[in-house]
Design goal:
Layout (H helix, E strand, L loop, with lengths): L3 E4 L9 H14 L8 H7 L5 H12 L8 H24 L9 H10 L3 E5 L4 H11 L10 E3 L12 H10 L6 E5 L2 H9 L3 E4 L15 E2 L8 H9 L1
Parallel strand pairs: 1-2, 1-4, 2-3, 4-5, 5-6
Helix pairs in contact: 1-4, 3-4, 4-6
Length: 235
């Protein structure tokens, strides 16, 4: 029986990646780095889940000598860049730079009316989640979700299923009783590894991904309601 909907955040709830890209480049400028990520490069880097992990991977690619830095110094630099980037992103979202994708809020409201639980399973930080959902839903956004898995409590990034396993445990539900919503191949792999049927809504950064095994692949969630999800889920 369908009992809960579990949502990824970046790219799934909202087209956030363009703003994240702006925020990364802002952080690089602030710290005096000569890096600039364009859209094709960032699209490739999105294969790596997690902002800090993405920066570390890029650094290793463009400057192999980074291994000469002590682990602590490297972590401090990446951490500082991530703090600057996160502050820029939060400010942009607070100023209306990002909105929920079509159909997302309507489906959430329909699910709540039908007595289904809502949850979040993401690799992003709590600050980023709060900025987006406070702007989109309101100051009481947290009360809409029974469980939230994020970078602070499930640090092993997708495609590892850790965040989904945590959310399922917090919900107290079987994977068979839930549907996940993702936008990327890594997200799909994580959700499927946890046993979840998964609806995919790709965006411009992930449209080229392989979504084999998805329950459905849709342009967005327009017109998707609980009745339709139950029909797909029961099949």
């Amino acid at each position: 029986m369908l009992s809960a909907l579990i949502f990824d955040v970046d790219g799934t709830l909202a087209d956030t990646e363009s703003v994240h890209l702006e925020a990364f480049n802002h952080a690089f400028r602030q710290e005096g780095l000569d890096w600039h990520w364009d859209v094709p490069l960032y699209t490739r880097l999105l294969d790596i889940s997690g902002g800090k992990e993405r920066m570390a991977h890029h650094w290793r690619t463009v400057d192999p000598s980074m291994t000469e830095l002590g682990a602590g110094a490297l972590a401090d630099t990446i951490g500082r860049l991530h703090e600057i980037k996160t502050a820029y992103y939060e400010n942009a979202v607070n100023n209306g730079a990002v909105q929920l994708r079509p159909g997302v809020l309507a489906l959430m409201n329909d699910a709540r009316r039908a007595g289904l639980q809502l949850a979040i399973a993401t690799t992003t930080s709590p600050v980023n989640i709060a900025a987006l959902l406070r702007s989109a839903i309101g100051p009481d956004w947290r009360s809409h979700f029974l469980a939230i898995g994020d970078a602070s409590n499930a640090p092993v990034k997708k495609p590892n299923p850790q965040v989904y396993m945590k959310v399922l445990a917090d919900l107290g539900l079987r994977a068979a009783d839930c549907v996940a919503f993702e936008d990327s191949a890594n997200g799909l792999r994580a959700a499927r590894a946890a046993g979840l049927h998964t609806v995919i809504t790709p965006n411009s950064f992930t449209a080229h991904h392989d979504f084999s095994g998805a329950l459905r692949v849709l342009p967005d969630l327009s017109g998707v309601n609980v009745a339709r999800l139950k029909e797909w889920h029961n099949r």
